[in-house]
Structures are given as structure tokens and as C-alpha cells.
Amino acid sequence: MTEIDMFATSDRRTRYEQYAHLRELGAVVRLREPDVYAVTRYDEVRAALADHGTFVSGEGVGFDPGVNQIMRGVTLVSDPPEHDLLRSVVGAGLRPGALRGRREEIALKARTLVADVVAKGEIDGVTELAQAMPMLVIPDFLGLPDRNREHLYAWGQVGNDLLGPATERTPHNMEMTQRLFQFAHELAANRELAPGSPGAAMLEAADQGVIPKEKCPLLLVDFIGPSLETTAAAIGHLLVVFAERPDQWAALRAEPGLVLSTINELLRFESPIRGLTRVAARDTTLGGAAIPEGARVWALFASANRDERKWERADEFDFRRNPVDHLGFGYGAHHCVGQGVARIELHTLIHALLESVERIEFTGDPVIAENSLLNTYAEIPVRLVARKAA
Which of 91-100, 209-218, 286-295 has the lowest mean pLDDT? Predict the structure, then answer.
């Protein structure tokens, strides 16, 4: 058991030092507070995520018992066979075929957004680019009405923080989450979702008796929150990584065919979600450690993605690495169902930046956001220097 407080700070450097220390201690390390078994190394995290029969999600994937209870019934907080049914409905509009037709539309939004921020000169990369991109895509994609769009990000961004241990931020986070739940109830009750959208398809599935109608608001929350905040976190890290490494930005501009590799390396190097918890359904052993039935287990995606046993130069960013088996989107039955949309957003945005931006420069120090489970920034002062016309 270790006394390390994994929630004492949101400082990135401190967190990565803590992950490295935990990996040295073992593949599974019991924390004293909160009392969980932290899974620290790549092979064991992947094994735990793959074994959804032993490490279950239906008892909650966060730390706070009250929040876990509130979230029960969403796709993330359910187990097969319920999970498989819900995921089939949520994921129907997120399959590759359904997304293919939206790619050019999303690319156009990315190019327009990049042109706007380049013209501005100095920007806050968080609000004006990282958060702006998913807000241009997700509400229309899901078929949401125009009303309350200005509130969606504020309501949705607290979700991962709420899954951590209770903090002084919890009352505010609960208020924002309750507003999102209320909006989702209104959308389902009033059927305020555009025809042909994934949201409308979910209501149709309920009409046909595929899923219970009372699940619809929960599944809408499942759609909205994660699709905004995790993608924004990844875009923020994109700006910081390349502002710190102008040589790699110049090299990527010369090799734009490596954008997919860049996305995979970005999600490995700066995993948007630190990790989610499971509960052991039975006495088991993982990484040589005995885990008793009922124990809460924290699968640390961010630590696994920096595991030196898996990755050479694990603490270095290299856009040519292409770590296709990273765990930034999770793994197994609960891998991120919306990753296809997130990848298109990142792919089109990076290409738009490569076409228009010579280099990314800090105009001030980035500010880390206080968040228990989301690895993200509150502010990134940058200047996107335009490429000179040929």
C-alpha cells in the first residue's frame, strides 16, 4: 500500500512522476486514500479492460459512490448484456459507414475555424480552438436543437471531474450535470432531435421497444458530455505539444501523410482521461497482486501509455511512432464508442492547421485545468503564425 495522493494536484509533471513511481512499485498498487487498486502498467491495464466479466462497470467507473449511483444505466456504467444492447443503439450512427458521409462537412468546418483563428492572431487555444471544434461538430451531428447550445460545453465538461473523489468543485459539477440531465429529459420528452440523426435514431429504437424509453435521457447525456470534453482536451494538447516542438511541426508539414500516426502518438503521450475504475466481481489476481471481490480497481490509461516496458522512449513525443495499440480511447467492451467522430475531428483539424499555419507560438504560459480525471488545459495563450503564400 502507498501513501501517494494521486489527486493532490493537476500538475502534469507531478502526475507523470507519480505514474512512474507507481509502475516501479508494481503492476497493481493499492492506494490508501482513496482505497483502490491502481493498475499501472500497460499489459495489466489492457488485460483488466479486456476482462469485463471480472472487472465490472455496472457498479460505477468513478470514485464517488453517489455519482456512481446517479450514472448507473448509461452505456459507460453498465455490463453485458445490458451494455451490449445500449451500445448497439448509441453506436448505430457512429459506425464508419455512417461517418463517411460527414467527413467533408467536418473538414469544411475545420478549415473555416482555422482561417478565423489565424486571422485573429493571438488566441486562447482552449476556448477559441480546442472547445470550438467539437462544438461546431457534435450538436449538429447528434441532431440537437439550437437552444441551450451556448451552455452545452459548460454542462458537459464537468463530467470527468465529477467521476473523481469529491472535492470543493463537486457542488458546482453536480449543478452543471443536473442541468444537462434536465435538458436531456426535455429533448427526449419533446422529441427535439433532427430526423436522421443518431439522437432521433435512439428515440426510434425506444419506440420500437429495443430499449426502455426511460433510458433515452441517460443515453443522450452519454452522447453529449464525453464527445465534447475529451476531444477538446486532445486538441489542447496538440497545440501545446507542437508549440513546444516546432521542429516536429515543421517535419509534419513536410510529411502530412503522417497525421494518423500523429493522432495516435498524441493520444498515447497525453491521454485525455487519466483512467476509469471497475469493481472486482470475484477474488482474482492481476500482475501478481491479489485483488479481493468487491475491491475498486483504477485502470490508469495515462500511466499505461507511458509504460517504458511497452514503449521505447516512452516520455518522448514522436509523431512518427504511430502507436496503434495505445489505450487513450480505453480498450475492450467499453472502448470509446465515439472515437470515430473524434478521429475525424482531429484529422481534419490537423490537416487544416498544416495547410495554414507555419508555426504555433506561445504568447503566455498554458494553465492546467483543475480536474480529477481529465487531463486538460484551462487556458493556452498562442499565436498561429500563417504560412506565407507560395
Answer: 91-100
- The SS3 assignment for 1 reads coil
| H or E stretch at 39 | strand 37-39
DSSP state of 335: S
Give the confidence band of 72 by pLDDT, cuts at 50, 70, 90: confident
Counting Cα atoms < 13 Å in the Cβ hemisphere of 269 gives 24
Q: How far is CA 155 from the centre of its chain?
A: 15
- What pLDDT, in 10s, does the model give residues 35-54? 999 999 999 999 999 999 99
d(CA 272, CA 235): 10
DSSP letter assigned to residue 127: I
Dig out the grid coordinates for 132 from the structure: 470550438
- Which residues on adjacent β-strands are paired with residue 74? 72
User: Which DSSP symbol is given to 215?
Assistant: G
DSSP 155-211: HHTTHHHHHSS--TTHHHHHHHHHHHHHHHHHHHHHT-S-TTSHHHHHHHHHHTTSS
pLDDT, one tens digit per residue, over 213-257 is 998 998 898 888 888 999 999 999 999 999 999 999 999 999 999
In the structure grid, which three cell numbers stand for residue 39, read together? 493498475
Q: What is the rounded radius of gyration, in angstroms, for the C-alpha atoms of the chain?
A: 20
DSSP assignment of 41-107 equals SHHHHHHHHH-TTTEESTT-SSS-HHHHHHHBTBGGG--TTHHHHHHHHHTGGGSHHHHHTTHHHHH
Q: At what angle do helices 132-142 and 198-207 cross, to 10 degrees?
A: 30
What pLDDT shows up at residue 91?
A: 79
Phi, psi of 21 (to 5 degrees): -65, -45
